[in-house]
Design a protein that fits this description.
Layout lengths: L1 H12 L11 H31 L5 H9 L7 H24 L2 H19 L1 H13 L9 H26 L5 H28 L3 H31 L1 H4 L6
Amino acid sequence: MVTENTSSLLSNIEPNRRFRVSDDLSALRLGFTLASVVVVLVLAHIVSEHLHLASGRNDGFASKIYGLVILSGDQSLSESFNHGMLFLAAVLFTLASYETRSRLALFLAALFAFAWLDDSSQYHERMGAILVKNINLPSAFGLRAQDFGELLAWALATTLLFLLGNWAYSGRRNGDGLVLRLISLPIAALLLCAVVFDMIHIMVQGRLANRLLNILEDGGEMLAVAAIATVALAVARNPERIWRHDQL
């Protein structure tokens, strides 16, 4: 009887309040789990890096652990975990798009799928090399032909995402604004770590600064991606609450 009354009360309140990620306990559990793994990997990176540098050896146990968990290392455990979270976010937004026909959800799925592809497969490096080989790009202004190729690869991907984003905007729906509000902070955090901290890293020199900025840049990026995956699960699990005013 108490359960029925509680359910009735929640059903009366729910339509009058905006959905929040904290309303979905499964999404919160996922976010807590992902963030906990990220924190463990960051701590493992810090400790193993310190022991590795203190030992002065490249073949010791600490060095092997450091090579396994290094935040900025290609194919490291930390990098692979980040790839997995991006892939998860892309899949979840794809499911949300299929369920609701939301163009915004499809755009977000494409955005995070591209981020996963670029991180895991070095899209811009490989595509840049292909463009250099086939277009015969020059070297100029202090930039290599490969640099121009990578910039062109980024421009191609950005153009496609822009067109998809414009298409999504033209077909926006009532619930899309809520999804944007939910995902905007994690994306802003991701850009802060991936762009702002990276620029600071380039300008600030020094061993200690390099180690600190590596943690802020790569560790912060992983936490932001964990938040993105959390929002993606909340959106995929609650389409009827987010897009409830639309005729699906």
